[in-house]
Amino acid sequence: MQTRKHERIATEEAYAPVKVLNEYRRLLEGGGGDRGFRSLWTYYLKNESVHTNFLVDRIQDLGERRLADMDRLGIDRQVVGLTCPGVELFDVPLARDLAQLTNDRIAEACRRHPKRFVGLAAVALQDVEFSVNELHRAVNELGLKGVIINSHTRGEYLDDPKFEPIFAAAAELDVPLYLHPNTPSDALIGPLLDGGLDTATFGFGVETGMHLIRIIFSGIFDKYPTLRMGVGHLGEGLPFWLFRIDHYHGVHGRTKRYPFRPDLREKPSYYLRNNIWLTTSGMAWEPAISFTRSVVGEDRVIYAMDYPYQVSAEEIAAQDALPLDDKEKKYFFETGARQLFGIDA
């Protein structure tokens, strides 16, 4: 067997403490949460199958079971963050407690296995001030390497000015914000849920791709030019649309179609190529990976698995077989993740 010349760092790997899963169960039993949450977590917590049992067993583990899977698959490190929908569906006091608990548990795992796990902080964006303070605690005291946001917060998006402090904190701390998918909000989910398309098949991409382009169009990267973001699933379709996005951004800017929208210093594609890293989570498909690398740049596409939602040795083999030389492969599997998350060698 040929010896690898790089680590494999998987950069969008999910975790949920037992207490969070129990609170998801409680919310379901009380008929709470939005329609997307009920669709997603009724499936995983109320249905017995090989797939759902595998996920529930693995997602709450940050120890030997997860490490054994990583060893079996050839994953050297995971970047771990709280799974969707995070804690934003809960009342504020509970959400705060669960975010802090999650961060403490992830930090503990990183201390036990410093060469295997890298942690992202959970926040509770119902309380922005708490979230900023918790991000500072998670980075400065716990050693976590960024913040994960599971897309919308009760139907609100990060381009709302009230959420700007979380971007400001990430920029100040020099850590990335990872935008993770969530099921579409109640205002968006109807036709997707009716067609059985509300989660990974299509709904995650609709929700998160829209969210990302809203963030870009908000002008946040002009305010914080050093801000870094990560997004999975090869950018949720946006690389395919970049030509048209740039074109109509220019047309609508010249004709003042949306006067409420700020003028950007650059074309939208600029920010996707300079501030945002795209990971391959769930997208182990050479045509899509190669196209995305050609559009946004070879230094903006890095490896992820999407454990434990999508776990396959064949998908790793497919990405090992990408037509990349040794230097490119090292960046794709290792160096890019180190740059994005500030991971020491």
TrEMBL record:
Gene3D superfamilies assigned to the protein according to its UniProt record, in alphabetical order: Metal-dependent hydrolases
Source organism superkingdom: Bacteria
Segments forming domain Amidohydrolase-related: 51-343
SUPFAM superfamilies membership: Metallo-dependent hydrolases
Pfam families, sorted: Amidohydro_2
Keywords: Lyase
InterPro entries assigned: ACMSD, Amidohydro-rel, Metal_Hydrolase
Listed name of the protein: Amidohydrolase family protein
Organism (species): Streptomyces thinghirensis
